[in-house]
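Blinded run. Sample ID left blank on purpose so nobody reads anything into the name before looking at the predicted structure. Input follows.
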Amino acid sequence: MNTEMLIGSRFERGTETEEAILNPRTGQTVLSLPEASAGQIDAAVAAADAAFSSWARTTPAQRSAYLLKIADRIEADADAFAALEALNCGKPINAVRNDELPAIVDCWRFFAGAVRCMPGTAAGEYLPGFTSMIRRDPIGVVASIAPWNYPLMMMAWKLAPAIAGGNTVVFKPSEQTPLTALKMARLLADILPEGVVNVVLGRGESVGNALINHARVNMISLTGDVATGKKVLQAAAKSVKRTHLELGGKAPVIVFDDADIEQVVSGLRAFSFYNAGQDCTAACRIYAGEKVHDKLVADLSAPSRPSSSTSRTPKTKSGR
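Blinded prediction complete.
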């Protein structure tokens, strides 16, 4: 099990406050990991900044090939990734292995294809003798901060599009669930050029805060709560950093009077409580038509009966 952060081409342990990494299923401590120091955060950003000039000049085909290699490696090591995610998150291992890992691999492969098929707005001659064109350029160094409920999946969602587009990244997983991110760090270091992806550990109020306020970070990507999103916007405003914020969601379900209530109840039981309900797309608000309201409430609150219709689980998730 890797316990070291990735900074450029080096693997090193943090030097600051240690965080106990728990197995939520048992409440026992798996290990303790120290968070990054201010110097290590600076070094990670500097490594990403140094790598950007050459990585940004790679072609879409070259970046696509890197992403496909990453997908293949994850797929080949899926059992080990699933075991580690289950250990650190308390998830049923079959849910990780059969639902999450295929989606994670597919995410890397999707962006490997998407980067080679980027659409563009047509341009032409808007003034006599002058040709107008639209060009897409990478942004620079992206500070990515991920949550604890889908650690490996959120890492894929944040890294794959960013590096596919020619950016470099400093990635901070949740301090509670960093184990698969550290395993991924080893995999990424074997495949990608030095500094394209860096992984640092620590709490939001220390390491996360240092990243979002760093002068050499060009964009901040956060999946988290609304209060943290406000802090990101305040930090980004100082130097006009770009932001990508996915904040606390409350997913609504609208049930019309002609709905099949049996199917609705089955779907709600599956999608409301998948991953213990720790999901920003969990079906947690229900608006029901007047004619079906009472039956829906009665059926939804009645003891569930095992059936084939209640065994479905969602295949892709969004996390906080």
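Unblinding after everyone has recorded impressions. The CA atoms of residues 152 and 180 lie 6 Å apart.
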